[in-house]
Design a protein that fits this description.
This protein is an alpha+beta fold. It folds into four domains: 166 residues, no CATH class; 74 residues, OB fold (Dihydrolipoamide Acetyltransferase, E2P) (Beta Barrel), CATH 2.40.50; 77 residues, no CATH class; 156 residues, Beta Barrel (FomD barrel-like fold). Helices cover 27% and strands 31% of the residues. It is built from twelve helices and 25 strands. The chain is globular and about 80 Å long. The chain starts with 14 loop residues before the first strand and ends with a helix.
């Protein structure tokens, strides 16, 4: 579906390609916001009463590998607009700039060599260069010029994937430095040959020393769209060549410190919290049959995602709640947990997200109690040393931590006891609504917390850190207001 400009602002609407488990909902949201969605998949074309163009895209929105959110990359202004629309979904949608957007070029320094590739310091982040994508043998300390092939969200333990071949990619057209001729990345040999032949008819001058590579999506585009995409790719290739220069040669660098050399595109990462997933359900429900907790369940695992597809295909529109359904009462947590986990006896990772985009594990724990209301209790036996944050009490070997998570709550308590049962204190984390997935418990910490000391004293801590996060733009004000309200309620409850 396409239009020339935003009717209110007069600005040209960005063309966006959407893929992954959030596609239907994101497509509905973007169309309602006046954003053009192009290169729609066949299921999307069938679901929407709209015409979707096959023009080249300026922005890609794709679900992250862990299904927790989406990555947005493309032209900087367009990425900003799309990210703003998606971040407005709910108060637990968080967004962060990508320091390694696809296509960015860095003068890097090899810091470690592994069995399959080299870890590279990019200055603002780290990347991984597979040996198969490197021009030369690599050793620790080597300088190398690299380009980002695939980035990675800040909340996962994975580095951006790099390569030394320089590519100028715009939409479905890519120019490859040091190559020549025309190639098409498609399994349809007939369509590929036809597109290669049509390329010769385009009156676009490609810079010397750059070959043309089309994606499969280009086989569906008309001549005008092909010409526009190739023209933009040629312009990007010229810009890259000017930024990189030829003095160091491809795949090498003489830079003394790691640095960004060229950033032709921008990137943003969006993490969806529980409320955001249910908001996406509402957008999807306006298009097709959608079970309560559709995106919450699909984000859990591949098996759960397939189960959702089967349930919706079998039940159709009449089998699910209406558009005004309440997420907390209609989401079938007990059914989903019994089928996919977590239930008593399972082991889960506690993934502690931070407002700056990082996430780290608080460790694995066994589920010792499970309830149909969404409560998942886990018990950990702790090692000794130091004191408990916020409580000040000593931490001894054999201490236990009993944590009770409840799906959808903006807080969770942990009760610490000694090996012989003596209470060492209670710490209550205030966070985005908890999600209890089959293998992990996830949330984003909102800084402010409430503690109850062994003598019964109740204390609220870290308000200043929440205030600073709001001022820095890391936490939406609406989420901060909720966090402060929750903390105040917890103080009253624990003081009684």
């Amino acid at each position: 579906m396409s239009g020339d400009s935003d009717s209110e602002s007069g600005e040209t609407s960005p063309r966006v390609r959407v893929r992954g488990i959030y596609t239907t909902a994101v497509t509905r949201l973007l169309l309602d916001a006046g954003v053009d969605v192009v290169q729609a998949s066949e299921p999307i074309r069938e679901r929407f009463d709209a015409e979707f163009d096959d023009d080249a895209h300026e922005v890609t929105v794709a679900t992250t590998r862990d299904r927790q959110g989406v990555g947005i990359d493309g032209d900087a202004d367009a990425v900003g607009r799309v990210a703003a629309e998606l971040r407005g979904l709910a108060r637990d949608a968080f967004a962060w700039a990508d320091p390694t957007p696809p296509g960015a070029v860095f003068d890097a320094r090899v810091t470690e060599t592994l069995g399959s590739g080299a870890v590279c310091d990019l200055g603002s982040a780290e990347g991984f260069l597979p040996y198969g994508d490197a021009d030369d043998d690599l050793e620790t300390g080597d300088s190398v010029r690299v380009q980002v092939r695939e980035s990675a969200p800040s909340w996962v333990d994975r580095r951006a994937r790099l390569g030394t071949e320089i590519r100028a990619r715009v939409g479905f057209a890519t120019l490859v430095r040091g190559s020549d001729g025309v190639s098409v990345d498609t399994r349809d040999d007939t369509a590929g040959r036809e597109l290669a032949g049509m390329t010769d008819l385009l009156s676009i001058t490609v810079p010397d020393g750059w070959g043309i590579e089309w994606s499969h999506a280009a086989t569906r585009a008309d001549m005008g769209a092909l010409a526009a995409a190739l023209e933009r790719a040629a312009a990007r290739a010229d810009d890259l060549a000017a930024a990189l220069g030829d003095e160091t040669g491809e795949g090498t660098s003489e830079a003394e410190t790691p640095r960004a050399v060229a950033t032709p595109a921008a990137g943003r990462w969006l993490w969806f919290g529980r409320e955001s997933r249910f908001a996406l359900d509402e957008h999807r429900r306006n298009v097709t049959a959608t079970m309560p907790g559709h995106h919450r369940t699909k984000a859990a695992s591949d098996a759960a995602s397939a189960g959702v597809d089967l349930a919706e295909a079998l039940c159709g529109e009449s089998g699910f709640a209406s558009a005004d359904a309440d997420a907390d009462t209609d989401f079938p947590f007990a059914v989903v947990a019994r089928q996919f986990g977590p239930v008593e006896g399972d082991t889960v990772e506690i993934t502690h997200g931070k407002p700056d985009g990082r996430a780290f594990s608080l460790g694995s724990a066994e589920v010792t109690e499970w309830d149909v209301d969404g409560t998942v209790s886990v018990t950990r036996t702790l090692s000794g040393g130091g004191t408990y944050d916020g409580l000040g009490t000593s931490r001894e070997a054999g201490d236990t931590a009993l944590t009770k998570f409840r799906e959808g709550r903006w807080w969770y308590p942990t009760v610490y006891r000694s090996a012989d049962g003596e209470l060492r204190g209670t710490y209550v984390n205030v966070c985005t609504p908890v999600e209890c997935f089959p293998d992990e418990i996830r949330y984003i910490d909102l800084h402010v917390d409430v503690v109850k000391h062994p003598d019964g004293t109740v204390e609220r801590v870290d308000d200043d850190e929440l205030d600073a996060a709001v001022e820095a733009g890391a936490v939406p004000e609406s989420a901060a207001e909720k966090a402060r309200s929750v903390a105040a309620s917890l103080v009253r409850a624990l003081s009684e």
